[in-house]
Amino acid sequence: MIVKRTLWFMLVLLLIVVGCQHKEKRYKLHGQVLEKDPASNEVTVDHQEIPGFMAAMTMPYEVKDADAMREMQPGDVIEADVATANGGKDYWLEHVRITDRSGRQSAKVGTVHHLDIGEPVPDFPLTNQDGKTFKLGDLRGKAVLMGFIYTRCPMPNFCPRLSSQFSKINEDLSKTPDDLNRTQLLSVSFDPKYDTAPVLRKYGLAYLDNNPAGFSHWEFASTDPADLRNLAEAFGLEFFEEGNQISHTMVIVLIAPDGKVAKYWGTEWTAAELEDALRKEMRTVKTAAISEERTGQ
Question: What domains can be seen in the chain, in order of their start residue?
């Protein structure tokens, strides 16, 4: 009987602990809507400090209430509950209330312009982790998966997530040398003042098992501020410097071997999805190579 009671007590305790780990928490948000993206059900909000959760900054938030998403417009001042789960790794807005609509007329209309799928990618210059300058055009002939990061990013669902998942993709592709030759991973920093070549090299090595040979397939690069703005505009990346941190959206781009945009991802993606798309584009390179060989014969 004592043993049964002890086991029962331990089970109850375990359920309480697990429940606490997944328990949702809510915080009060007050801010202004800067951008609205109906495709991803996200709004970018310039908000005040959220006590107990986040400093004042500009951040994208998912909105699960379809009615609230339709009603909100750039320029609106809102109050809402920030719901969080999994220790703050997952978060979204609930109970959105528009308190001031007067800013709509002066707000920027539309979303940030970016290259459409099928458009050629401009030949932006970049400097990699070894201080070597190259251009995006130098990667033509390969399927390129490009993501935007900054090395000091504290948000686990943004840059650290992207880099860790790129690491998994890189590891999978490394199992077949032919796959490595037909693909390229590229992480571009939007923090060039801090993310110098030595910083990017140190950051990259942490995701490459400290093996510098991995840079031949996965490069970490930055560019000067003027080119960075053009790069961000082309791919729809938004970022705002706030003190020692940068608030930003997430953008991943798949560039086809012919140098054209093949696909975009925001915050909703998996490593398997990215890898599958990359391999699909890679096969176009392989098919073209086989065709050339047969023609040569």
Answer: 26-111 (2.40.50.320), 125-296 (3.40.30.10)
